[in-house]
Amino acid sequence: MKKIIISICIVALMAIAYSCNKSINPPSGTVYLDLPSKAYTYFNKESLSFDNTLNEKATLGRVLFYDGHLSVNNTIACATCHKQNNGFADNVAFSTGFEGRLTKRNSKSILNLIGFDSFFEKNSIYSVGQSLFWDGRENILANLVDRPITNHVEMGIDDANTIPSKLVSLPFYNSLFKNAYYGDSTITSARISECIAIFMASIQSKSSKYDQYLQGNIMVLNASETNGMNLFNGKYNCGSCHHLQTNFYTMSDFKDIGLDESYTDLGLGNITQSTVDNGKFRVPSLHNVALTAPYMHDGRFKTLDEVLEHYSHNILNSPNLDTALKSGSQPISMNISTEDKAALIAFLNTLTDFTTIVDPKFSNPFKVK
After folding, report:
1. Which of 18, 120, 222, 291 has the most Cβ atoms closer than 10 angstroms to its Cβ?
2. pTM
3. Phi and psi at residue 368, in whole multiples of 5°?
4. What pLDDT band is residue 23 in, cutting at 50, 70 and 90?
5. Is 257 found in the same domain as 127?
């Protein structure tokens, strides 16, 4: 009897997994879209001075973000590697591409890619902004979208201009493009990139306990969390690289933190072709960091405790090791105690925004009948 129950559970889990996979790649004729109502906005309509269709474009971008048809064999969507419940990062060291091959780097979180307030001043998805990706190879958000789509491992499209011909046969896109572009339902690769970029720009995370603390509610943190915050900014000087004094946590600094004595991945150096940049990677945002494991550009650390252990005892004397992690010519050892680790992790947990990871307007819109 026990074996039968176990078998039933396994079959049920397989069915659930299959259904979840299907929802990324909507089957023709059996899908409907769960989209927000007119009042359910991504952007404050009073602020839409440069484009009053931003909400419609973000809604279209959401559908495109979750649609596997943007990959060459209809199996991989943007959301495949940027999962909502993982803070829009991936929960594995390397993501799986359209042919089952693994990416070379961990998929970063896409939360807070653009300062939300400045978004209303101009269409900043087309502006040169902060460096994107681990190696900083892009700094315009609208251009970021094409990078994974045309990557030979990730989504496998040779030419992004071929995507419109794939989407035009899907019945739900006609009205979505028409709503987003003043009655014009024409599908173009530029419009696809624009709408996905606007959707990604709308994914803002500003409701964590620490956000509340920054907004003046100093009692929201308990004693352990407050101790961890003080250790983060004081004794261990984590704040010198991870600037949490503002509401916007995404970074554009690049650092070599002593992961390897010899580089197998040059990081920024591969882009600039300068040896002084070898082994440097973009400092990641810590917003929702408790949800975005594994950590580092190669996902080598499974837990926050492992990350702290690296800084505590395992910083290596790499060629471009950041000066903040050196004493003279040698790497430092922070020797973080068990008690301090617990306090630091308690503080890092206060950076989790539980509203963003369940917000339906950022969720998979494809529902199978």
Report:
1. 291
2. 0.88
3. -95, 130
4. very low
5. no
Q: What is the domain extent for residue 16?
A: 1-31
Map tokens 């554009």 to a residue.
Answer: 252
Q: What's 40's domain CATH number?
A: 1.10.760.10
The tens digit of pLDDT for each residue in 81-129 reads 999 999 999 999 999 999 999 999 999 999 988 876 666 556 788 887 7
Average pLDDT, the chain: 88
Give the C-alpha separation, 310 to 304, whole Å. 10
Q: Are 233 and 332 found together in one domain?
A: yes
H or E stretch covering 255: strand 254-255
Asked if residue 224 and residue 180 are part of one domain, the reply reads no
Q: Is residue 15 classed exposed, middle or buried when 0-12, 13-18 and 19+ CB atoms within 10 A define those classes?
A: exposed
What are the CA-CA distances from residue 90 to residues 80, 96, 138, 292, 350 (Å)?
Answer: 8, 10, 20, 7, 20
The number of domains in the chain is 3
- pLDDT tens-digit profile of 41-63? 888 766 666 678 889 999 999 99
The rounded distance, in Å, linking the Cα atoms of 148 and 68 is 13
276 and 171 in one domain?
no
366 falls within a domain:
no
Pull the structure tokens for residue 316: 């290596």
CA distances (Å), 158 to each of 81, 146, 148, in order? 20, 10, 11
Instruction: Determine, yes or no, domain membership for 365.
Output: no
Shared domain check, 46 and 191: yes
Residue 81 lies in a domain: yes
